[in-house]
Specification:
seven-stranded parallel beta sheet; alpha/beta; Rossmann fold
Length: 255
């Protein structure tokens, strides 16, 4: 997205030290937004902000645990203090902990629930209250997954949280539409990121079983996100866009 349609807008993107979150923030800054990016890894998020700002845009980094409610308050408050307002909140941070259902440990479930659900829920709550105070509407976006639509081996807990995020977006239509705040989700499928490329066979496997012949790139996912938080989608809320090259239409297992 090369136009400056986000000029004057301020956004938060969590989990933006690398991968999809980084690309979302990068594209938003290129399109004119001021963006606060968050990641739990301080070195990673500081370097990310420097890279994004190198072209002259406005990007500020704040490291911290975006599953922690107190830190979420700090995240929103810091954004407003630094940039003066908040228009867009993108809850991208998430954790994937693989495990067989029959032996899945309570601590793993709690970690997945805390970040994927609690962190997203309370970021939306705090951001929405700020947007309502400003009286100028806004956009909230949750990062879902194809695993919230199709069963995937050893990802029961993760898929459960991602399906829940899509229901959260629908529920918030009732709560937030009167304030002109849209709430949507994007569900990526297999995506080439720094993490997934650590698996030497990942690209070839998902290229073979994806109808479009390749996994998604971070740009593919970011393009969908930017559309849903842009003025172009001002009458779209409670919806989900799947970015998977058609995989959920056929659901071929990678195993």
């Amino acid at each position: 997205m090369s136009t400056k349609k986000f000029t004057g807008k301020v956004a938060i993107v969590t989990g933006a030290g690398q991968g999809i979150g980084f690309e979302i923030a990068r594209q938003m800054v290129l399109a004119g937004a001021a963006v606060l990016i968050n990641d739990i890894n301080e070195n990673l998020v500081q370097k990310a902000a420097e890279m994004i700002s190198s072209g002259g845009g406005k990007c500020y980094a704040l490291a911290g645990d975006s599953s922690d409610v107190n830190f979420i308050r700090q995240l929103v408050d810091t954004t407003v203090q630094h940039f003066g307002r908040l228009d867009i909140a993108i809850a991208n941070a998430g954790i994937t902990l693989f495990g067989d259902f029959l032996t899945y440990p309570p601590e793993s479930l709690q970690s997945v629930m805390n970040l994927n659900l609690q962190g997203s829920f309370f970021l939306a709550q705090k951001a929405a209250n700020q947007m309502i105070k400003q009286e100028s509407g806004g956009s909230i976006l949750f990062m879902s997954s194809v695993t919230g639509h199709q069963a995937h081996a050893n990802l029961v807990a993760y898929g459960m949280t991602k399906a829940a995020l899509e229901m959260l977006a629908k529920g918030l239509v009732v709560e937030l539409s009167p304030y002109q705040i849209t709430v949507n989700t994007v569900a990526p499928g297999a995506t080439l990121t720094e993490r997934t490329l650590e698996d030497a066979g990942y690209k070839n496997t998902w290229s073979r079983i994806t109808p479009m012949g390749r996994p998604a790139t971070v740009e593919d996912v970011a393009n969908a996100v930017l559309f849903l938080v842009s003025p172009d989608s001002g009458h779209i809320t409670g919806q989900n866009i799947i970015v998977d090259g058609g995989w959920t239409a056929v659901s071929t297992s990678p195993y």
